[in-house]
Amino acid sequence: MVRSVENGGGAVEILPDHFDPTAVVPEPLPKVVESDAELVNGKSNGDREIVLGRNVHTTCLEVTEPDADDDFTGDKDAFMASVLARYRKSLLERTKHHLGYPYNLDFDYGALAQLQHFSINNLGDPFIESNYGVHSRQFEVGVLDWFARLWEIEKDEYWGYITNCGTEGNLHGILVGREVFPDGILYASRETHYSVFKAARMYRMECVKVDTLVSGEIDCADFKVKLLAHKDKPAIINVNIGTTVKGAVDDLDLVIQTLEESGFTHDRFYIHCDGALFGLMMPFVKRAPKVSFKKPIGSVSVSGHKFVGCPMPCGVQITRLEHINALSRDVEYLASRDATIMGSRNGHAPIFLWYTLNRKGYKGFQKEVQKCLRNAHYLKDRLLDAGISAMLNELSSTVVFERPWDEEFVRRWQLACQGNIAHVVVMPNVTIDKLDDFLNELVEKRSTWYQDGKVKPPCIATEVGSENCLCTLHK
Amino acid sequence: MVRSVENGGGAVEILPDHFDPTAVVPEPLPKVVESDAELVNGKSNGDREIVLGRNVHTTCLEVTEPDADDDFTGDKDAFMASVLARYRKSLLERTKHHLGYPYNLDFDYGALAQLQHFSINNLGDPFIESNYGVHSRQFEVGVLDWFARLWEIEKDEYWGYITNCGTEGNLHGILVGREVFPDGILYASRETHYSVFKAARMYRMECVKVDTLVSGEIDCADFKVKLLAHKDKPAIINVNIGTTVKGAVDDLDLVIQTLEESGFTHDRFYIHCDGALFGLMMPFVKRAPKVSFKKPIGSVSVSGHKFVGCPMPCGVQITRLEHINALSRDVEYLASRDATIMGSRNGHAPIFLWYTLNRKGYKGFQKEVQKCLRNAHYLKDRLLDAGISAMLNELSSTVVFERPWDEEFVRRWQLACQGNIAHVVVMPNVTIDKLDDFLNELVEKRSTWYQDGKVKPPCIATEVGSENCLCTLHK
User: Fold this and answer.
1) Which of B161, B136, B336, B350 is nearest to A94 (CA)?
2) N or C: which end of chain A has fewer CB within 10 A?
3) Helix axes B348-385, B137-150, angle to 10 degrees
4) What is the reported pTM?
5) Is A186 helix (H, G, I), strand (E, B) or coil?
6) For residue B44, how far is the Cα from the chain centroid?
7) B286-308 b/e with 16+ CB inside 10 Å = b?
8) Could you tell me which residues carry N6-(pyridoxal phosphate)lysine (chains A, B) (predicted)?
């Protein structure tokens, strides 16, 4: 009696009398929305006017309705294959010329391609299986345990999860801080990642910006002044383990000492460490102030797509279980244990991380960190040798230098810029050969930009200190 | 003179004098953290005690340090290949027996495997290219345009982005609502997804819960009472286009009418439509109240991994450009245009969506919606025929029925449960054959659970209405 409706014929008998198949709209195709030609066209790539909701419309790949005979002709398949082949080629070129963002583009996850056919979702808590069986919690918790060990917290004392990116880690860490201290004030240095200020705004928290040193580190003298001005309220502090622009590492020990000296006992502050890129490099660098839960910190986050390398953004968030237990009591009535920011979570990301951690291990990361630091020093020295202002923080692989005059050059090498400075983040995939290509091109271009003396290289003494500035005034 | 450090020998000359390569910690391997055996062991899978931060530790896949000779012996590769092969097999089995979550598990993205080697990140705004070149904005905007057309808003009047999941869409929509009306009160029905209440908590918004009808729809009589009690403040309303448990569709037109009747002019309310699953099915169902930006709504979100199907969670968020322009003015000083919740964004998700939309088109989705509705009716009728209480909302493919007595059965079929009810969401990959397997197993199991009359099937009249309840009292 039971027949599949797909097999055609005889299927009608299994449908209920009151079900009307014509209840499905026969012609659902919406009308084509007329686009305003003036807005969509006439914007060249060089024209970088920022108008929300417009620019990319000029180059976007429209979704088109398949023709009725596409299955027969194969035209659609051929079209899509050609789009993808062209796109792949552009990705190869763009990947080759990338220097500005802290992403390790050197990975091979071919062994995991077999898993792309599954809809893997770690919805909910990593430590509590939901009824959805297609998950990867066993990999996720394995990865979390590895990081818990790195940051020195016992398995039964931490809670954490694999996030969608560094921003989610910061959003989570600061939310936990706010739930621990509902009237706490958020302190973050000026050179902190924008996601931390976004969190303050989203969560309606009072936020105090702290000055920075030339290196980009938090200025603990200014921090103390600001703490003393707000002694009545608990402190929630974002500590940067590598700032976005200069790769500066805040001195965690000095931050804690400043808190203590200002009269904040350990039950009156919460520290979130934003480890974005460098949280995973620093454990392998001697003299670096150690990030450890043996110190009075509340949470640490790090990105997974940065030093480890991953096809899509992801991150790791670790906090103390006691904080989450306090949080989850309140969350419980809302839903079945929801202590993450996102409900559904990408189950592939933990497998990528698990795979790389297993293959490289602590020793492999150590080697790569060593290589990155060597190459970063090489780049900085060659820049200075060529008369180009440059700075490299001692514990960092982020080389800061004068912003190239030509935006086309900036875009070609995908440099991240702020004001008069640009940076290159030396990641494991950045070889000496690549740096040489970049340096040679920069030196050559500079000789044309500045040849007639009308335009001069910018002074970046305020950004990097006069000792690192080679402008006409300082050299 | 320039030599790669990787090539060994002669590399020292390129290093600066002051750089000390031994600055890298020689023995970074942290000590193994001792785990408390009592906590880690002794929890069987059947024991579902929920203790945060513990259960999955029993089954997790530890990350181990590679041996020095792994490259030579291949032992590590062999071990990892065997773990992945076993995992793949379990995913096949779990995918086969999945019925409870609204995920379309039927997809083939083999053509996109070539892109897994790239770190694709659409960081920042979809419409403004960042300097990071390895992105997929051209696909993202193509997908957004398709949805803008579906929900009837002009290209130059919308803003949107591909999110990490339905929760991110809700978090964004409600944040935009709060920025438009900083003192607005959030209204949401009791059967609303928990992420909406999470948003209220995160954003420190006043939140009013509205009653629901038996169907799961918002009760507009109660909504009116609550609106009239808070006439002094603007209203931010979450409208469910398919609730999580019962698949109930709130009547958008009635919600708007209720607002108007209660004295709320269009400049005093903001409506966010949570389209999670059904936002993409309903446009193809006749008689369904249409979601359209021609009506006074502020934003719509829908999940990408649900009806479309995708290896990882993702979603689409569309709002009015005017709201984002207002929002971004404030955000601008924080950073270079940051109007999303997450900063870094998965660049693969838009390509998956683009690929499926192109292949299936509006007509393809129409066919699949028709199939799902037919199969859902089939399931509901066969449940009722077998004497099992069941309900199916007219515009839905979510079949609600009595919760199976045995938790093992619930886990095997990955049913989502709440109190005395369970549900099956009939997605495109759920065939009549699969439903028959499920039905036959359920009927057989029930005859053993309830054979001696000591245990009786639960009454679910309050959840689904007495007319759909077949318990001993109501049948």
Assistant:
1) B136
2) N
3) 40
4) 0.89
5) strand
6) 29
7) eebbebbbebebbbbbbbbbbbb
8) 306
- Active-site entry in B82, B396, B397, B466: B396
Residue B431's identity, in one-letter code, is: T
Confidence of residue B55 (pLDDT cuts 50, 70, 90): low
DSSP one-letter code for A33: P
Provide mean pLDDT across the span A401-424. 92
| CB proximity list for B299: less than 8 A, separation 6 or greater | B172, B173, B176, B177, B271, B272, B273, B317, B318, B319, B320, B323
ipTM of the complex: 0.88
Written in H, E and C, the secondary structure of A324-339 is HHHHHHHHHCCCCCCC
Q: Which tokens hold the place of B188?
A: 């949401």
Indicate if the alpha-carbon torsion angle B276, B281, B285, B290 is positive or negative. positive
Active site positions of A, annotated: 396
A4-45 per-position pLDDT tens digit: 333 333 333 334 445 454 455 554 455 544 433 333 333 333
Chain B residue closest in CA terms to A100: B132
Report CB contact under 8 Å: B119, A309: yes
pLDDT exceeds cutoff 60 at B24:
no
In this prediction, residue A29 carries a pLDDT of: 52
The answer to whether B63 faces chain A, any CB pair under 8 Å, is yes
Query: Residue A271: in which H helix or E strand, if any?
Result: strand A269-274
- Helix/strand/coil for A404: coil
B119-177 pLDDT, tens digit each? 999 988 888 877 888 999 999 999 999 999 999 999 999 999 999 999 999 999 999 99
Residues A205-235: tens digit of each pLDDT: 999 999 999 999 999 999 999 999 999 999 9
Enumerate residues 6+ apart whose C-beta is below 8 A from A443.
A386
Compute the C-alpha angle B304/B401/A7, nearest 5°: 65
Chain B residue with CA closest to A92: the answer is: B118
Which residues, 6 or more positions from A145, have their beta carbon under 8 angstroms from its beta carbon?
Answer: A155, B57, B60, B62, B63
Residue B55 in tokens = 């259960």
In three-state secondary structure terms, A206 is coil
